[in-house]
Amino acid sequence: MTTHHILLESIIPKGNVTIDTSNDELSMTSITAINTEYVYQDIPIKSFACIPGKFKLPFRIDITIKMDSPSLYLIIGKGHISFNKGMDNRSVTDILGNDYKPNTHEFNNFIPINEYVDISVTYGCKAMWVIVNNELRCFSKNDPYIKALKTNSLAEELKDGFEFGIACDKRTQLTLKSINITEYGNEEPVAPTGKIAIKMPQPCLTVSEKSTVEECMHGLAPDLQKEILSTDAYLLNDMKKSLKFKRKIEGGYPNSRITYVSPLGISYKINITDFLLTHDIGWVDYNTKREQEKYGGTKKADYTIETLNKLAETSLEFSNEIFFRMKECVNCNGHGGCIHAKSYKHDGKTKLSCGGRIQFKMLPPDFNDLRKMVCAVNSVILSP
Fold it and tell me: How far is CA 370 from the centre of its chain?
């Protein structure tokens, strides 16, 4: 048995990710959107922190990590494990790849925000499991790689070992305190006993009648609840006569989606899973050819550039920040030719975006940024 204590300075950034190894820690973030749809391809994430070397089965990965918002992805071989992904029915995929079926693992993937978490992932010859802060979160004896080991059908190129990487969503601040990888050689790691701690909510919107905003968000931190209520009042009251937003609530606790849609063509969405939240705003897309033919284009309206220019009148720095938060096209359908791909230009920079939606984090200041953007949209639409 050999334990590799990985030097943080040896970790290599791949793709559009930044890494800083000062203060005896590794800080990283993605500076572009990443494709996390493990539906059409084995390794869709192209921006990540790469741990040097390959590691032979059986092995265990031990990391101590902290994150300020969703989400975290461990890339192992051609598979992955995601944490704090929200409504995700493919939180675990097999290290051999070609694993596209949903809900193959019972996995409680929630981890605390803004505090260090110990994560241990073991790939044995008879089972794989995930432990978070000494709690068993996932256990499986049916992974394809295990069957391949039993039948001696593991691909020749994989017998030399598996690569490992760490990824996070765009703008997520991730801090890695330590990482150790243990290769067991001819030994078999001892499997844990007991049941999986705290079953994860179903990865879908629950059936609920007449849910309220308060019911949907009661798992969130108080400061986030306050910002949601302020934003709700701003959109439905302050913008009532101009943008005329209508609110729609789908699901309830712990999974819900709150959508505000203006008949002028802009929508704002809040997705909540227990204590996790993502939100974004953009101009409504027509998703089918029938809609596009009926309405004469892919969108009813798109004043993205006009809105950015309006924001630049007050602060060019802020308008550039909003442009940076626009979601890049990452070929999430796996086949190319995204029907929502469109090129946007602002302040000398060009971006190919998937729908032009502006993404925000689960931080109170981001809600204020959202309201500032809506105010700019309102000014653009009302201008003669």
Answer: 19
